[in-house]
Hints:
binds NADP nicotinamide-adenine-dinucleotide phosphate; 14 helices; Aldehyde Dehydrogenase, Chain A, domain 2; 2 domains; about 40% helix; about 475 residues; succinate-semialdehyde dehydrogenase (NAD+) activity; alpha/beta; six-stranded mixed beta sheet; Aldehyde Dehydrogenase, Chain A, domain 1; 20 strands
Amino acid sequence: MSSEREVVEGCPTELFIGGKWVAAEGGKTLAVEDPATGTTLCDVADASPADGKAALDAAVAAQAEWAATPPRERGEILRRTYELMTERADDLALLMTLEMGKPVAESKGEIAYAAEFFRWFAEEAVRIEGGYQVAPNGSGRFLLMRQPVGPCLLITPWNFPAAMGARKIGPAVAAGCTMVIKPAAQTPLSMLKLAELMTEAGLPAGVLNVVTTHDAGGVMEPLIRDGRARKLSFTGSTPVGRKLIEQAADQVLRTSMELGGNAPLLVFEDADLDKAVNGAMLAKMRNGGEACTSANRIYVHSSVMDEFSSRLTERMAALNVGRGTEEGVEVGPLIDGKQRDKVADLVADAIAQGARTLTGGSVAEGNGYFFQPTVLADVPVSARLQKEEIFGPVAPLTAFETEDEAVRMANDTEFGLVSYLFTKDLSRALRVSERLEAGMIGLNQGIVSNPAAPFGGVKQSGLGREGGTVGIDEYLDLKYVAVNVD
Ligand code: NAP
């Protein structure tokens, strides 16, 4: 693995437009901070609306030729991207840890996960199917073809700086779309590095354009309203998603929205408690709790609550919190001071409403934005953290008595991304899985993400799916040709 300085210095910091690295208008830059120390890692280009327009111009100019590139060629570029990411996983992971904070081992996990999207969509690029059908009255034929939607606008959050982009770039490249991607201002480095690596893998100029900016709305809104981009794919919070859907309505853009979550995790009285505790640790603590899939509310049958809570508390209290680059660290800092204060406020509100702290509960020592892994018991349903995404290492426990009560509490949210349930009873597992209002269910396991599976939510957690065999459809338009055979 290279040193911290080498990976930061080896990372591009300019905008990537039309296959060239260019400075932002007026040479403006924005600082990227290490959340473990609060110090500046480096400065990257701070795009203006004019820079954003130049990026869209480049994507539009490259679209026709890219759409005509043989699917096998597009697939091979994705496959090489997968290979390069895998070969360079150590350096890519270190870079991610420096800008985002998660422990290096978790960053490596994300690099592997992100790389898998490129491998998966390398395989999907050559499986874009059409159809042929005899009309029901026998007098004509239907030809169905799938074509790239056109230039895409992609916007990603800071919590998974590589994977959230890979889930969009992989299928867009496979489908034959060009794109402008705007990574989060707090974690632009992983995406800039990925653009460099995809160029090395053979991606032609103009297919992928990257703009980094402190002014997300100012740069992206004109592009969304421009009319030349035909698709907007966003991963981020529900409030921003709502705003973008409104903007996209102007030009009737196709949209994919991967928005917020408020995942319930249900532990029934017949659950295998080893699996339930392991699953809860994973569902809660992956990415330090800063995940849309994070278990936000843990509902446990009253008969197993004491045992479950003491085992979970023991595991949470033993976690090693620190700078993600240090050996043995299991939980890094939160992304910034605002997020740390929000977690502290949610915990204080729950305690004021009667919750008991079993472990943690406070901001942790240090210059960075650390919060102690926390377990809260007897959390009332009126507590704010039952309604809002915590996005931190806090596990709130609430007891239930009946299956109906558990399902009702689980569904009592405007979100519907993922739910987890732990039970050994097959009938209950299927019955409850059907009743839970979520796009994904973790059944006796605390992780659902897999590039080969359709990821996405219902209700206000979003529109569309990423990954799986349907992931590429988000970047393809279906065309039907009515054929006269007389
Ligand atoms: P966010 O504030 O919504 O930001 C997400 C992205 O949108 C960032 O790149 C941000 O830029 C940009 N943005 C903000 N305002 C914008 C605007 N007016 N126009 C265009 N772009 C705008 O979310 P976040 O705090 O980064 O991420 C956490 C949220 O993402 C959580 O709610 C989490 O659940 C959700 N998430 C969902 C999934 C999923 O698959 N469903 C996965 C991961 C995260 P700046 O960086 O400049 O603010």
